[in-house]
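hey
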């Protein structure tokens, strides 16, 4: 990451360089990145697709073409402006409810707190389920499976 940050600082928003035997281009401006990602005439290389799949699996970010469009259309209702507003309200209310239980000078495991809060929010947003009582156990299980 330091290399990329330095390269961008030194050479600007678009810079090319060698990465082993391959040529690479660093694009470091949100609008330019967005334009590249939306440009359907600029398909990903097989190597790029493999790298994305190894990191993210076969989800929406890794697929292209008609399967991507089909998945995007299926997911679109979940990202409607009103739904996003509802998610933000849910995140705020759950966060404030959690903070209400904190005490001054209390030592806290913030990683555990954030895992529990995230699990609670995701469970309510996706499944309308109140999982606060199960969050501690799920958090411990996630620690085992996540690096």
């Amino acid at each position: 990451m330091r290399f990329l940050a330095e390269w961008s600082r030194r050479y600007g928003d678009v810079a090319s360089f060698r990465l082993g035997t391959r040529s690479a281009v660093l694009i470091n401006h949100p609008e330019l990145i967005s334009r590249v990602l939306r440009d359907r005439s600029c398909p990903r290389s097989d190597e790029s697709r493999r790298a994305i799949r190894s990191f993210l699996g076969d989800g929406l970010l890794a697929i292209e073409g008609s399967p991507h469009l089909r998945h995007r259309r299926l997911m679109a209702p979940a990202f409607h402006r009103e739904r996003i507003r509802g998610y933000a309200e849910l995140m705020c209310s759950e966060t404030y409810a959690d903070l209400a239980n904190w005490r001054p000078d209390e030592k806290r495991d913030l990683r555990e707190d954030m895992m529990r809060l995230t699990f609670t929010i995701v469970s309510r947003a996706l499944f309308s389920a109140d999982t606060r009582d199960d969050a501690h156990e799920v958090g411990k299980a996630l620690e085992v499976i996540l690096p």
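The chain has a mean pLDDT of 83. Residues 1-42 form one domain.
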